[in-house]
Design goal:
680 residues, Rossmann fold, NADPH-cytochrome p450 Reductase, Chain A, domain 3, 3 domains, seven-stranded mixed beta sheet, 23 helices
Length: 680
């Protein structure tokens, strides 16, 4: 109430002046106080009234609303849906399967919607029974070592902590995994088991897709049995409608402001021109390539070392993390698709979702040109899935070609076999299919709607941030092979990276990237011994590990034994980082360097053979030194063979049976002492 003080009183006023004005001052004060009290009362009355009304104002409620949609239940009620298909997706495949299932629903007189669990509150699952003939389907991919995908992490956490009653919920789960990994389909299995524990009713058995085999066939086989089970449960029948249903409508922009057109950005328009941290999957950083050198001295392959400048990006990374890069498709492939379909690729267009309630307004950033979509947003190099062939079949003017496409998209054994041989094993991408089926000429907008999104590629970082805080190093091998049809197929990302020229102006030296955190970490105590096993480009994270151990030693820290098992084909051909490793060994940081050259002698020698050769030392490090073991590289053969070798060493020197040795190694994994960074 400092404002109630009397600003009319001058501190310099004399006592006489003060006395002379006293009477009039009191009468003025009385009037002032009465007015003030009346004013305060009036203000309080109106203020209180407003306060009571505030919560009823819709604007105030919307401001306080969470970022997520209020409820997928409300959305389903509003749009007349009864089937929701949630997806946990890292590379887009689970999302694609979810979209296919939700589109299937109309054939059975039902209505479906695909949903990202990250965008909704999954505790609402307990309310799904409010909707007639309702069903929740979960297409859940397993990522890394049995982990949930990024977008399913919150859902996974909720499931672990939830004590909800889901007795009214009907569900089914299809898992996407890879049998070469230790924890095959862990996420799908967990969701299926946990939902049942919470009281939900499973209406069809868990599906387990294997990406090491034929994931597409696994999905189709599960789906063709899933829908009859749904029909039986709800007492509905297939309507027989097998017609193609477009999800997006084409809008061509003839008079458009080019500043409003996407040119390859992943999220925010003009984000590549005006870069703002933090950088992530939806907002990648444009890193300058400062070095791009060939690592191998001979052989047919091209192995390369790249350095990306992350100065001023505020990007932080640790040894063992992954760097994700967004590649671009080969312009010659894009041009050929445009020529075959007789399209002006520079036409600016938008594909707008026909379902106005959908959170996904476009299949990729729009408006954009066909050229940009086919270069930066769409996967044009992988063999297309059967649903794409089915949708495209209607555009084949030749009856034989149309029948062939429909057969490959069918669930019949003959059709599956044809798809496997003609598409998958022959590695036919969409361009090859268009070339080999001259009558197949779909509208380019429908093709763009059907093709999956081009995904980021992940590489184990080959540097330590302690030594290189402003750059991230990549070690990669270019993928190039001849298909059964005689075509030369090239890996999208590695071919694109190979062409990056350091120091060049423009996009020829820029790489959109972000860092993804990993659990692949050096021990907390530098004195703990480490055994690193990484043949080929699997050496990448270990270059970072060794750099970090060297830095720690320079800081005066006690560094434990640092043992590397590395393998390549020939010593004079593809011995990666030979000079660096020799220097680290000379400096005493790398205490053991064991290299297997698989093709330098008649009998092939691999890393597991060297482990067996040094088995006594390996056991001593693990058993007495409490060493941490790290394996990086091929999951299908190498990682499995190395693990089997550890079983043998543990069994022999620990005097254990085979099952006990397996249990011992599994416990090392649980304790974080046996870590994998593998791919298939």
């Amino acid at each position: 109430l400092t404002a109630m003080g009397d600003p009319g009183m001058d501190p310099a006023m004399s006592a006489a002046d003060s006395t002379a004005h006293q009477d009039s001052l009191f009468s003025m004060t009385d009037v002032f106080l009465i007015s003030l009290i009346t004013g305060l009362f009036t203000y309080w009355f109106f203020f209180r009234k407003k306060k009571e009304e505030v919560p009823e104002l819709p604007k105030m409620q919307s401001v306080a609303a969470p970022v997520r949609d209020s409820s997928f239940i409300e959305k389903m009620k509003k749009t007349g849906r009864n089937i929701v298909v949630f997806y946990g997706s890292q590379t887009g495949t689970a999302e694609e399967f979810a979209n296919r299932l939700s589109k299937d629903a109309h054939r059975y007189g039902l209505r479906g919607m695909a949903a990202d669990p990250e965008e909704y509150d999954l505790s609402d699952l307990s309310r799904l029974s409010e909707i007639d003939k309702s069903l929740a389907v979960f297409c859940m991919a397993t990522y890394g070592e049995g982990d949930p995908t990024d977008n399913a992490q919150d859902f996974y956490d909720w499931l672990q902590e939830a004590d909800a009653d889901l007795s009214g919920l009907r569900f089914a789960v299809f898992g996407l995994g890879n049998k070469t990994y230790e924890h095959f389909n862990a996420m799908g299995k967990y969701v299926d088991k946990r939902l049942e524990e919470l009281g939900a009713q499973r209406i069809f058995e868990l599906g387990l897709g294997d990406d090491d085999g034929n994931l597409e066939e696994d999905f189709i086989t599960w789906r063709e049995q899933f829908w009859p089970a749904v029909c039986e449960h709800f007492g509905v029948e297939a309507t027989g409608e097998e017609s193609s249903i477009r999800q997006y409508e084409l809008v061509v922009h003839t008079d458009v402001n080019m500043n409003k057109v996407y040119t390859g950005e992943m999220g925010r328009l003009k984000s590549y021109e005006n870069q703002k941290p933090p950088f992530d999957a939806k907002n990648p950083f444009l890193a300058q390539v400062t070095e791009n050198r060939k690592l191998n001295e001979g052989g047919e392959r091209h192995l390369m070392h790249l350095e990306l400048d992350i100065s001023n990006s505020k990007i932080r990374y640790e040894s063992g993390d992954h760097v994700a890069v967004y590649p671009a498709n080969d312009s010659s492939l894009v041009n050929q698709i445009g020529e075959i379909l007789g399209t002006d690729l520079d036409t600016v267009m938008s594909l707008n979702n026909l379902d106005e309630e959908s959170n996904k307004k476009h299949p990729f950033p729009c408006p954009t040109s066909y050229r940009t979509a086919l270069t930066y947003y769409l996967d044009i190099t992988n063999p297309p899935r059967t649903n794409v062939l089915y949708e495209l079949a209607q555009y084949a003017s030749d009856a034989g070609e149309q029948e062939r496409l429909r057969k490959m998209a069918s669930s019949a054994a003959e059709g599956k076999a044809l798809y496997l041989s003609w598409v998958v094993e022959a590695r036919r991408n969409i361009l090859a299919i268009l070339q080999d089926m001259p009558s197949l000429r779909p509208p380019i907008d429908h093709l763009c709607e059907l093709l999956p999104r081009l995904q980021a590629r992940y590489y184990s970082i080959a540097s330590s941030s302690k030594v290189h805080p402003n750059s991230i190093h990549i070690c990669a091998v270019t993928v190039e092979y001849e298909t059964k049809t005689g075509r030369l197929n090239k890996g999208v990302a590695t071919s694109w990276l190979k062409g990056k020229e350091p120091g060049q102006a423009g996009s020829s030296s820029l790489v959109p990237m972000y860092v993804r955190k990993s659990q692949f970490r050096l021990p907390f105590k530098p004195s703990t011994p480490v055994i690193m096993i990484g043949p080929g480009t699997g050496i990448a994270p270990f270059i970072g590990f060794i750099q970090e151990r060297a830095w720690l030693k320079q800081q005066g820290k006690e560094v434990g034994e640092t043992v590397l098992y590395y393998g390549c084909r020939r010593e004079r051909e593809d011995y990666l980082y030979r000079e660096e490793l020799a220097r680290f060994q000379k400096e005493g940081v790398l205490t053991q360097l064991n290299v297997a050259f698989s093709r330098d002698q008649a009998e092939k020698v691999y890393v597991q053979h060297l482990l067996k050769k040094n088995k006594e030392n390996v056991w001593k490090l693990v058993n007495e030194g409490m060493a941490h073991i790290y394996v990086c590289g091929d999951a299908r053969n190498m990682a499995r063979d190395v693990q089997n070798t550890f079983y043998e060493i543990v069994s022999e020197f620990g005097s254990m049976s085979q099952p006990q040795a397996v249990d011992y190694v599994k416990k090392l994994m649980t304790k974080g002492r046996y870590s994998l960074d593998v791919w298939s």
